[in-house]
UniProtKB/TrEMBL annotation:
Protein's name in the database: Protein lin-52 homolog
Signal peptide region: 1-24
InterPro entries in the record: DREAM_LIN52
Record's keyword terms, sorted: Signal
GO annotation, biological process: regulation of DNA-templated transcription
Source organism: Danionella cerebrum
PANTHER family linked: LIN52 FAMILY MEMBER (PTHR31489), PROTEIN LIN-52 HOMOLOG (PTHR31489:SF2)
One Pfam family, short name: LIN52
Family named by the database record: Belongs to the lin-52 family.
Assigned GO CC terms: DRM complex
């Protein structure tokens, strides 16, 4: 998916997260803030490392954020290929065969 504008990116994030967000740009960085006063339920499960990563991602420019997303898409694709190779290898070695009853 190619994101062309900040409003489009905000719309995509609203759909993916299910949150009501306000989006903006400050100092050549974009920001997203929930419109509610209380934090969402999913934030209660975040660890400090997760919060730091969210802050880091929030400080990226739009171009850098899109580059990061493309990198994650490429990584997911490569992991899928590797898993497929391992499953094929396991099939040929008969290690995935169900035990006979």
């Amino acid at each position: 998916m190619e994101v062309k504008t900040l409003n489009h990116l905000c719309s995509v994030l609203k759909i993916l997260t299910g949150l009501h967000l306000t989006c903006g740009r400050s100092n050549n960085c974009i920001y997203f803030q929930p419109i509610t006063n209380s934090p969402p339920k999913w934030m209660a499960e975040l660890e400090s490392e997760d919060v730091e990563m969210l802050k880091e991602l929030g400080s990226l420019t739009t171009a850098n954020l899109m580059e990061k997303v493309k990198g994650l898409q490429n990584l997911a694709y490569q992991l899928g290929l590797e898993e497929s190779r391992e499953m094929t290898r396991g099939k040929f070695l008969n290690i995935l065969e169900r035990p006979k009853k």
